[in-house]
Design brief:
By secondary structure, this protein is α+β, with helices and mostly antiparallel strands. Helix content is about 20%, strand content about 25%. β26 and β27 form a beta hairpin.
């Protein structure tokens, strides 16, 4: 009897120890999710682009399952939150890509947490963009291994280890491996792929989730010269077969940007080829479920299969993306699925494929796609999908849309606009959103607006949105803490400017702290360094000389939730630090 009681417990422990797990459970597939950043629907050969060379992705798509009406959010962090949770991003606390709105609430149950609980080894490589500090890091959200850059992109202000490298930020970067800074050699996409392959090799005898989230081809557009040379002489605006598709007009800058993007995409294609080859070499390809997708439309003007809009817009060009899937349990290869699907569907799909339970204590907005793959009848073909994008919080009815069946209602108007001020498209007849038919179909438009209003009202009342996630300061899980500009709230549009009103929402543990303030440029002498936390204000007067780093030693804080507001005041200027480091003393 004692042996029967001990054995299951021992097995559970072994499953959690790297290298000591059991052989792969063949009834559950490995999962690899590959997602690129700002690669539009038209940035592939298989979607009609005659310029970009993507033979690996094209072959993968042609041999497997193609969801031809797949949708995401118009921008990065919301898409990633929905992918991880199966929920609309506003439910998770994600409301922006920066300005303090790209931190997912720690009470969310992620795909990684769900699969890890079932014995999967979990790894993420590349772009996370759902929180850079405890408790929002990948390691806090279910990932056993993580290699990421910070914030929304390498070379951006929030990524404190690559920003100052300027036009070389994608090369030889300092990245964050399991929450520690490590220097790497090479190009970022190559590094992320190589480390993902290392993770797969280490866990080849176990069941794993590998999330390979390339930061390319997001700006800054940096690529190895050998890839750029493949495209340096092309005209990205020429060579398209004349059809009913509207063709975009490109400036010379647009064309040069497209050349760099296509070079970055071809590099990604080569890296995906390397990963697929490794699966064959390890003899685990047949038991591996693989997804390829992108996170939103293109940022720059270029070919997007004739669709209207770019990244950031709720038109098709901003939210419709390629989605290809290899599902080893299905014999159905080389099939097209036209039913509308979305990022919120990944978590329930993978829960069913991996035979794990969905969380039952929250709303899951998505649905499993497996019935569609298996050709079963479904009753949700006309389910509505909600889209929005404005900075900070959704603004009715600006850049907001609802898609249901073949109809799409788009608001690019005022908060109190009449239905005639909206746009209504029949996507079956008008896939390029060129003809507004709202005046001839007001009943359809009004019915859709009722759903739009109801969805908006429900999401904007989400608890994680009303009680925004805070960064934990002084915790044993992360000490010191670096507060970066991506997570700074305050005025809108905080980026690399010196004079700005910024603040960080934190929960601080009682104790003494050493605080370091880093500035973009050295501040002048004889100013005042000030830090405000609720009613408590600390200041240092009469700085003796100019410097880009100011330190306050042994500053006491009680336990509290607060907005931390730091600034250097000199004359009429209030200068916001580039980042703030807070280290709790023993």
């Amino acid at each position: 009897m004692k042996i029967k009681m001990i054995f299951p417990a021992l097995m559970a422990v072994l499953m959690l120890l790297p290298g000591l797990g059991l052989a792969q459970d063949k009834t559950r597939p490995n999962v690899i999710i590959i997602m690129t950043d700002d690669q539009g629907y038209g940035d592939l050969g298989i979607t009609g682009n005659p310029h970009v060379k993507t033979p690996v992705i094209d072959k993968f798509a042609s041999e497997n399952i193609r969801f031809n009406n797949f949708f995401v959010s118009p921008v990065c962090a919301p898409t990633r939150a929905s992918l991880m949770t199966g929920r609309y991003s506003l439910r998770t606390g994600i409301r922006d890509t920066y300005n303090g709105g790209a931190m997912m609430a720690s009470n969310e149950v992620t795909l990684a947490e769900m699969l890890k609980k079932a014995g999967y080894r979990t790894g993420v490589f590349g772009k996370w963009h759902l929180g850079d500090n405890y408790p929002g890091r990948p390691s806090d959200q279910g990932f056993d291994e993580s290699l990421i850059h910070l914030s929304g992109g390498m070379g951006q202000v929030g990524d404190v280890t690559t920003y100052f490298k300027g036009n070389k930020s994608y090369f030889d970067p300092v990245l964050w491996h399991n929450n520690k800074k490590e220097a790497y050699q090479g190009y970022c996409s190559d590094i992320f792929t190589d480390q993902a392959i290392n993770f797969i090799e280490k866990n080849k005898d176990e069941t794993f989730l590998c999330y390979l989230a390339f930061n390319a081809p997001h700006t800054p557009l940096q690529v190895p010269e050998k890839y750029y040379r493949k495209y340096k002489d092309i005209d990205p605006s020429a060579g398209f077969i004349k059809s009913s598709q509207p063709l975009v007009k490109m400036t010379e800058k647009d064309k040069e940007d497209a050349r760099k993007v296509y070079a970055m995409v071809t590099n990604i294609d080569d890296n995906i080829g390397k990963l697929l080859h490794k699966l064959d070499e390890l003899d685990i390809a047949e038991n591996t479920l693989i997804i390829f997708m992108t996170d939103n439309g293109p940022q720059q003007t270029r070919y997007v299969s004739g669709m209207r809009g770019l990244k950031g817009t709720v038109y098709q060009g901003g939210v419709r993306v390629p989605f290809y899937m290899k599902y080893p349990a299905s014999m159905a290869r080389n099939q097209d699925i036209q039913t509308m699907a979305a990022h919120i569907d990944l978590l329930p799909t993978l829960a069913e494929a991996c035979k794990v339970e969905l969380p039952d204590d929250r709303i899951i907005d998505g649905k499993s796609l497996l019935p569609l793959i298996k050709g079963q009848e479904v009753d949700w073909a006309d389910r509505p999908l909600f889209f929005y994008w404005t900075r900070r919080y959704p603004e009715p009815y600006y850049n907001m849309a609802l898609q249901k069946g073949s109809y799409k209602l788009v608001g690019m108007t005022d908060y109190d606009a009449s239905i005639e001020d909206f746009e209504l498209f029949n996507l079956q007849k008008d896939p390029y959103e060129q003809e507004n038919i709202v005046n001839e179909n007001k009943k359809i438009a009004n019915d859709m607006k009722v759903i739009l209003d109801s969805t908006y009202s429900e999401l904007i009342a989400s608890e994680n949105l009303k009680d925004q996630p805070r960064i934990m300061v002084g915790s044993s899980f992360e000490n010191p803490v670096i507060l970066n500009r991506n997570d700074a709230g305050g005025q809108r549009g905080i980026w690399a400017q010196e004079e700005a009103y910024g603040k960080w929402g934190i929960s601080i543990e009682k104790g003494f702290y050493d605080i370091k303030f880093k500035f973009i440029e050295p501040v002048q002498a004889n100013g005042r360094m000030c830090i405000e936390t609720n009613a408590r204000v600390k200041q240092m007067l009469n700085l003796k000389e100019g410097t880009d780093i100011i330190e306050m030693k042994k500053v006491f804080f009680p336990e509290m939730d607060c907005d931390l507001i730091p600034f250097y005041s000199i004359g009429s200027k209030r200068i916001l630090p580039f980042w703030v480091e807070m280290k709790k003393l023993e």
